[in-house]
Design a protein that fits this description.
The chain is α+β, with helices and mostly antiparallel strands. Helix content is about 35%, strand content about 30%.
Length: about 140
């Protein structure tokens, strides 16, 4: 599988092929966003869309939406949503990681359910660094 950055001017050409991959991620969120919000952020350049393409079939098999956050010591690529066959093995992850590094990222974070956390850890070597808590104001 080959991972590619989707330029802003072509997001509309591929969105209908990746939208369903992000629905499960949205359904597991606590309401911060929906699929239309994700698209709006990508189209506006606030977040970035990456896709995984099956080279034999020439079809999109997965995608990730990334928000880059600049901290004093790191530039973090924060995976907002991922789905399909985006993070399935080291090769696909390494493709994505290379593109994230090209964008200046020094670390990659993702918010994940317990099951997704196990997937990130077992498939591509992520480690748990935080527990997120919330109180509605």
């Amino acid at each position: 599988m080959r991972v590619e950055l989707v330029p802003l001017n072509t997001v509309h050409l591929v969105w209908n092929q990746v939208e369903n991959y992000f629905k499960e991620a949205v359904n597991k969120s606590v309401g911060e966003y929906n699929v239309e919000h994700l698209k709006a952020h990508v189209v506006a350049g606030i977040q970035t869309l990456y896709i995984a393409i099956d080279e034999k079939e020439g079809t999109i098999k997965g995608g990730s939406i990334v928000n880059f956050v600049n901290y004093p010591n790191f530039r973090v690529a924060y995976i907002t949503a991922t789905g399909g066959n985006m993070i399935v093995n080291d090769d696909t992850w390494n493709n994505l990681a290379d593109l994230l590094k090209q964008a200046g990222a020094t670390r990659c974070h993702a918010c994940a359910s317990e099951a997704a956390t196990r997937l990130y850890k077992s498939k591509i070597g992520f480690k748990k660094i935080y527990n997120t808590v919330e109180r509605i104001l």
